Amino acid sequence: MLALVASGCAAIHGQKLKYQISSLYPVDDPQFLRTVSVLLGPGVIEGNKATALINGDQFFPVMLDEIRKAKKSITFETYIYWSGQIGQQFADALSERALAGIKVHVILDWMGTSRMDPVYIKQMRQSGVQVEIYHPLKWWDIGSQSGVQVEIYHPLKWWDIGRLNIRTHRKLLVIDGKVGFTGGAGVADVWGGNSQDEEHWRDSHFKLEGPAVSQMQAAFVDNWMKSRAEVLHGEDYFPALEPAGHHLAQVFQSSPREGSESVEVMYLLSIAAARKHIRLSAAYFVPDKISIEALVQARKRGVEVEIILPGAKTDVIVVRRASRSSWGRLLAAGVKIYEYQPAMYHCKVMVVDDVWVSVGSANFDNRSFRLNDEANLNVYSREFAAEQIRTFEADKRLSLPVSYQAWKNRSIPTRIREWLANRIRSQL
After folding, report:
1. Residue 243: inside a domain, yes or no?
2. Which pTM does this prediction carry?
3. Among 197, 248, 376, 387, which has the minimal tally of Cβ within 10 Å of its Cβ?
């Protein structure tokens, strides 16, 4: 079913095993769905409806509307939450529901909230929202002894520093256990609008209805248990779910620190199963050697490979430089790379052979593969894939292609900066 040979990375019993996934069957073979169901955790299940929402003008109003309609529970986990108009709207909506007696649970990453005014957290907590900060930098913790809160002093040892590099990058919102959202967007004004200029990012978020929402809820509960040592369960969180559509779907999670590098396995399995076309939209694309080899092998099988990445309007220049340093083999093999021009390109979408789609929080880089907690929604549907292809083609028309010759003709100072960036990025 699956061949494992040298290359790649998986943490097993504290060691790194290297693997390469052989191309044994196409994505439309039933074996493919059986394999991703077994290896990624939860199965691919029927009866779902996935809806794409393009840019903040579409996804923020829908998300806020669903929050305001919540009747039993809201679970919300995000990496970036910054101060601004959007941040205030979410704080107000979540607070209002908590005051109305709805169970509201929020996980915010400590690093991703560096530009968030603490008044938002204070507002939410005073309203009854349970807010957990993921992996905060602090020298002490609040503990409990005999039901009384006490301060417990924990000196920050040198070996604790590594945990600061482990972030939750998941972007999950689940309402009443029945409606879910995931994708690339955080909570910040840069995601507002319609990517009309460089101040407004291009991104996609996705609404999910149907039985797979329970898998999304489970991904949230995974980090809630780690953050608060509390298991959320019962009908308020996991109600019986009727079919909502005809999409086959799966929501899987990845926590590399626990030896689960499901994101990289998913990408490599999908690339290995491709026979016709791979379309990849990536906000941060820094492929390792095995990922490059997988894409090159796909080209040798005759697969057309197209990748849209951020152009000069990027939020992290070191990532763009590190990315460009790795393009040589890909461009030489015929992989087509495009750089999006109007604004920061933050999409995270893969479409394989016009039927298999993966969306969510995961980037195509070492951080998502081996450091971040991630969660992705996979959808097996030609109808849904066709919609994502139309969006991909629209983005491509706003992008400039990169030729192999232009890449080879980069100046020596540019090459040095890119080489250094790649060395730095590989350690993050």
Report:
1. yes
2. 0.90
3. 197
